[in-house]
Amino acid sequence: MGKLTDAEIVKILSDLISIKSVNDHEIEVCYYLKDLLAAHGITSKIIQLSETRANLVAEIGEDGPVLGISGHMDVVSEGDALKWRYDPYVMTEVDGKLYGRGTADMKSGLAALVISMIHIHEAGTLTYGRIRLLATAGEEIVGEGAKAFHQQGYMDDVCALVIAEPSEDRIIYAHKGSMDIRVTSKGKAAHSSMPHLGFNAIKPLIQFVYNLDEGFKDFTQTNRLLGPPIMNATIFKGGNQVNSLPEYAETEFNIRTIPEHDNSQFISYFKRILHKIESPDTQITIDTYMSRPPVFTTGNNSLVKMAQTFGKQYLNTQVEAQASPGVTDAADLLVDKDEHFPFIMFGPGNVSQAHQVDEHVDKSTYLSFVKLFSEMFPTYLQNLK
Ligand SMILES: [Zn+2]
């Protein structure tokens, strides 16, 4: 079949944008990619997580070390569609830019990975090692796709990982973890003139938040790449009538973790605070509904260096390597790997475009990444020989 043309490469992205995989329905993306890969002689497997959600895995190469290449298939909601200049699900090209939900985050990166795999396969340039595509579901919420890949052993023999999240201007090799925790308090409703007949759900929750904030001062360690941990109460609500004692209140926290103050520390910290403020009347529950660990690698490896070399060649810029505050699927894919593991986040699009109205990617950058990946992946593996 030969190499895909630029027009075909753009059409593939356009097809992917038209699939509304908004925090769900990744299985539709799987079907599309499976057919595309099959048309070029690459078999793939859909691993269902639910009726509408699935991961996709495909591999080329016979044996030897495995390079993992990964992208997520979900996108975030378009928000207020009226604010968009163009239909978010009809990819529109204007002045060399491709507009649409997911053009940057990260269907262009995903497409570039898949197409590079096709080009490598068709050109027969993979002479050593294997390339395994790990297309994930649910990256934008809790990372269930990446968690499933890890649990099912797909990462066990992977020796290096590229995630093509929008990061055309810098190569990321470390990032913080993230947690979302909901704390709910139950009380007993009563008329506010007779509070002894009820229990105010807000009261212990205020104490909880206050004590939690005070104690956070003791989280004094700072990671040399990632900086300090961050914790914020971002939601607080309770009560619905001014002359009634509220029977329910809740607060939510987002926490950004580092290896020195990791996710498990925060889980036990929340328990300690609960213990401190508990009384016979309090009914507080803690629900950690999202937890993705930090990723710490040193970046001191040939994958980072090679990405910089090829970045210079194909993107015509000196791409710096650095740590980032954002979270990727690496959080769950790399849980068993150590700091020497070669990991990069590098892909078309700018992170400032992610989740925005009028999200877009430069067409030329997207096409350049197809070429960059097509050359870099087999070269990286060959150099391991
Ligand atoms: Zn993303």
Automatic annotation (TrEMBL):
SUPFAM superfamilies reported for this sequence: Bacterial exopeptidase dimerisation domain, Zn-dependent exopeptidases
InterPro entries, A to Z = ArgE/DapE, ArgE/DapE_CS, Bact_exopeptidase_dim_dom, Peptidase_M20, Peptidase_M20_dimer, Peptidase_M20A
Q: Which reaction does it catalyse?
A: N-succinyl-(2S,6S)-2,6-diaminopimelate + H2O = (2S,6S)-2,6-diaminopimelate + succinate
Membrane-spanning residues where?
A: none
EC number(s) from the headed UniProt entry: 3.5.1.18
Q: Which UniProt keywords apply?
A: Amino-acid biosynthesis, Cobalt, Diaminopimelate biosynthesis, Hydrolase, Lysine biosynthesis, Metal-binding, Zinc
- Which GO terms are recorded in the biological process aspect for this UniProt protein? diaminopimelate biosynthetic process; lysine biosynthetic process via diaminopimelate
Named in its record, the pathway it takes part in is: Amino-acid biosynthesis; L-lysine biosynthesis via DAP pathway; LL-2,6-diaminopimelate from (S)-tetrahydrodipicolinate (succinylase route): step 3/3
So what family is this one in?
A: Belongs to the peptidase M20A family.
Its lineage reads: Bacteria, Bacillati, Bacillota, Bacilli, Bacillales
Q: Tell me the GO molecular function terms.
A: metal ion binding; succinyl-diaminopimelate desuccinylase activity
The record's annotation in NCBIfam families points to: DapE-ArgE (TIGR01910), PRK08588.1 (NF006365)
Instruction: Kindly provide the name given to this protein in its UniProt entry.
Output: Probable succinyl-diaminopimelate desuccinylase
Q: Which residues form the signal peptide?
A: none
Q: Which residues form the Peptidase M20 dimerisation domain?
A: 173-278
* Cofactor(s) of this protein: Co(2+); Zn(2+)
Would the keyword Translocase be found if you checked this record's keyword annotation?
Answer: no
Q: What is the species of this protein?
A: Staphylococcus gallinarum
